[in-house]
Amino acid sequence: MIEARALRVAIGPKILLDGISLEVRAGEVVAVIGPNGAGKSTLRKVLCGDVQPTGGEVFMDQRPLDDWPLTERARVRAVMGQDSTLSFPFTVLEVVMMGRSPHLKGAEGPRDYEIARAALEDVEATHLEERLYPTLSGGERQRVQLARVLAQIWEAPANCSRYLLLDEPTSSLDLSHQHSTLEVARKFAREGVGVLVILHDLNLAAQYADRLLMLKDGKLVASGQPVAVLTSETIQQTFAIPVIVTQHPHLDCPLVLPTRARMKSKDEG
Amino acid sequence: MASTAVARIFPGLRVRSNRTRGSVVLIGLVLLLALMLFLSVDKGAVEISLAQCLSIIGGRIGLHLPWTFTVQQEATLISIRLPRVFLGLLVGAGLGVSGAAMQGLFRNPLADPSLIGISSGAALAATSFVIVGDAVAFTLPPLLRLFAFPCAAFAGALVTTILVYRLATIAGQTIVATLLLAGIAINALAQALSGFLTFYATDTQIRSLTFWKLGSMGGSTWSSVLVASPFILLPIFLFPRLSRALNALLLGEAEAGHLGFDIERVKRETVVLVALSVGASVAVTGLISFVGLVVPHLLRLMIGPDHRRLIPGSALLGASLLLCADLIARTIVSPAELPIGVLTAITGAPFFLWLLLRDRKWRIIH
């Protein structure tokens, strides 16, 4: 379990995170939603140890995050950030193989290649294997980076839970890949991985997450099951946009429909 | 991009992975280096064949070999050519490796120790040491003095590297424009300060410092080999241990940290090792620019950017390239000699311009 207690991050007078506590348990997908500047990425950076909180603590499996030796931590927890600036001509397979680094003693073995290829298959990028990374499109890069972090925590070390932190993994993806990405996240959760994913699309979050955390101005405004969090009042207050929330016609989850549109509403007509 | 370049260079070679191709290229580089070694020993004002060379060296260690040689050939080989070849090997390998590591650290293929001012910083520190040291009649025992010069250059290189890194890197991101502009500023400043120091230098000092700064292998002796080897061999043998971390660093600092590498330590070690080899190279041969830029770049085109192959490859190709440049420098205007730094700059600067103009996809300048 990744556990954060009363996290607070302040830079000068500006408070980025204010008293956030949360848990990500093994086997569940937790989505973080909120408007731009709400502190979602800051939260992710604190949870993975990139940013030291001004107050509060982060634990992973009951152990303070900073007490974990770096390699050991990297074997059980992978992080996908928003932008990776790789501009050197590695092949896609080489990039994914970097995910195996924390597990290597010497050179990569055949098992590492098997894992890297399986991870590429999961993100539907097998055909890109020999392409050079800098020549890929934004969406293709995002999928390759996802494959890299999947390959990193592909197998669980003995008696360890695994965790996956994804910061807007779908931002450059087309509709079908947005869904396949979150399906992969679900698949990992089924295998016992605790997944935390930052999302902008409320409907994606509603469909795939077990629990949602809604952030605004560095504060947690709502948390719980999608049905409980995604109400028209909370969304209107948090995102400042009028919405209708209804039941998804085919799936067992809420569906959020913004009502501010170019077209006049039928009622007014 | 790399694969098409390889296909262009070796049309018959269609090896799938960078890894397999890497081994083939590395073997080729070993053979190339052997050839350059042979040519470097053989060619020059006095010709010495490989057989005679073996005879001479054999004679020194008590082996009697049948090939005859003259006294002049023996003297040339032992006290001029061999130290020069060894020094060329060391400096070339050191510059190649430090260029490759520097580009990994800055995550940019333009970060060459001479372009971003590290060599000038080393040269300035070494010059100050000579002029100020002599002016205040600062005397050290000869052996210590021999090592003090490269130590001063090392210190200069270290300070400049840290300075440039601090200037050009904000929150783990290198701003390439700042990096190159900082290089220009540091080069200018170092030149100005050297100019200022020449007021205090004697005429002999000015003459020898000027030639030294142009970059020359002319003064190679066994003692310069002895002085440079620890400084340069240490990085050559330690850098391979940092290869995987440097690879990960290319993804970004945070990403490399998430893969379990201790990034701060990797950066510190890289900076110190680069400063060691650049400092020592500058101390023994002066400013030889562009080797650290050209060598890793050519290799990346052939075998990809993986540092596990790039670093040994850069050592081999750097050594070959420097031996080749030195061979040309000392034979093209024979019996006179061209400063090797002039030669590498004449060929390296157009290469640099070509890099700037080519392939915007790499986005080396943002």
Structure write-up:
- The complex is a heterodimer of chains A (269) and B (366).
- Chain A is of the alpha/beta class and 269 residues long.
- Helix content of chain A is 32%, strand content 27%.
- Chain A starts with a strand and ends in an 11-residue tail after the last strand.
- In chain A, 45% of the residues are buried.
- Helix content of chain B is 75%, strand content 1%.
- Chain B has helices spanning 2-9, 18-42, 50-60, 71-106, 118-135, 142-168, 176-198, 203-214, 222-249, 253-258, 263-285, 291-303, 307-331, 340-357, and strands spanning 169-170, 173-174.
- Chain B starts with a helix and ends in a 9-residue tail after the last helix.
- Residues 10-15 of chain B have low confidence and may be disordered.
- The interface between A and B is medium-sized, with 36 and 32 residues.
Mean pLDDT of chain B: 84
Oligomeric status: heterodimer
Sheet with most strands of chain B = 2 strands, antiparallel
Mean pLDDT of chain A: 92
Coarse structural class of chain A:
alpha/beta
Order of helix and strand elements from N to C terminus of chain B: HHHHHHEEHHHHHHHH
* Percent range for β-strand residues of chain B: under 5%
Structural class computed from helices and strand pairing of chain B: mainly alpha
- How large a portion of the residues of chain A is in β-strands, by DSSP E? 25-35%
| Biggest beta-sheet profile of chain A | 6 strands, mixed
Query: Helical proportion of chain A?
Result: 25-40%
Largest interface (CB within 8 Å) is between: A-B, 36 and 32 residues
How many helices of chain B? The count is 14
What strand line-up does the widest sheet of chain B have?
1-2
**Poorly predicted parts of chain B:** 10-15
Strand order of the largest sheet of chain A: 6-7-8-3-9-10
- Number of strand elements of chain B: 2
N-C termini distance of chain A: 53 Å
